[in-house]
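Hi W.,

Here's what went into the run:
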Amino acid sequence: MDDLEKYIVKRKGKSKKFAKNFEKGYESFKIGILLRQAREEVGVTQKELAEKLSTKKSAISRIENHAEDIRLSTLKSYLEALGKKLQINIQ
Amino acid sequence: MDDLEKYIVKRKGKSKKFAKNFEKGYESFKIGILLRQAREEVGVTQKELAEKLSTKKSAISRIENHAEDIRLSTLKSYLEALGKKLQINIQ
DNA sequence: ACTTTGGTTCACAAATAGGTTAACTTTGTC
DNA sequence: GACAAAGTTAACCTATTTGTGAACCAAAGT
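Here's what came out:
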């Protein structure tokens, strides 16, 4: 079980809603989970992050919970606002 | 000079149009260059790739040349159609 | 010179991501 | 319980990506 899976188990325990939504499809949630994990690691609230990105906390929440897809630029700026870097590899 | 840069030099030599467009901004072209490189490596034409993705060759060309941004799902399926895997890391 | 193949670009339509507001829930603290 | 802070969701709107067809160019082969 890797870190992401551990995190998912933890989050399922914390949020019944998440657990239910999660079953609808792993793939579509994977990126949101990754992003939430990154944000929590840094210890920033959705509101704080939203301000750095000149957007609203609701948009952040949507990305972390709902978003079926995301633009590469959004992904990048989200992470950069957390002081992280996005790395893309092709295998 | 890494592989990507080498490839860019090569492509600048082949296409004046590309060379000119490229100067307008590196960042926005980077992903397209990566994708073209991946496709050429496999030896697939834009038309062949388009068919696998149920789209048209013009859409492929746009992604490789013009596209300012791209959805994660598009990136993923493009690469998977080439038999490659997209790997995302956060640093 | 003509045709074919691979690629580029444009214009328009369709689909979808992201901005925004407002109402709501959850969680923690007093 | 009351309150505040953090997060969620829905609705609407706008901006952007992607689908599509057509016209075009360059290179290669006939």
